[in-house]
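Feature request, filed as a ticket because there's no other form

It would be nice if the structure record came with a short human-readable summary line next to the tokens. Right now we just get the raw output. Example of a typical job, pasted below so the devs can see what we mean:
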Amino acid sequence: KKTQLEKLLTYEKIVAWTRPDMMDTVEVQVGLPKFKLEETLDLKDLLISMGMTDAFDLSKGDFSGLSPSNDLELSEVVHRAFVEVNEEGTEAASVTAAIMGMRCALRTPKFVADHP
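Raw output as currently delivered:
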């Protein structure tokens, strides 16, 4: 259920209230809790939904710029982020990795018809 404030709050009112001429410079003390956040995201489905389909398609992916024999395939794209805030300050890092593997020829199934 919405509170009275939530019912009255509109985008236009927020814009009006936060205009520079509506603001005063005030010194405040800000306290932040200590926290640590780590997150790992698999980006493959997101990238495909954004139209990056050929890179994950074995028949269409072209990585000849990375491998002259064009024998690479993109299997995953993973992003990992880390943030820690404590008394000593803030530490943050992130990395994105594209996992590639060698394409290999499909094995021909073996069928031996040696009984009725």
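Something like this underneath would help us a lot:
The first strand starts at residue 35 and ends at 42.
The helical segments are 4-8, 11-17, 44-49.
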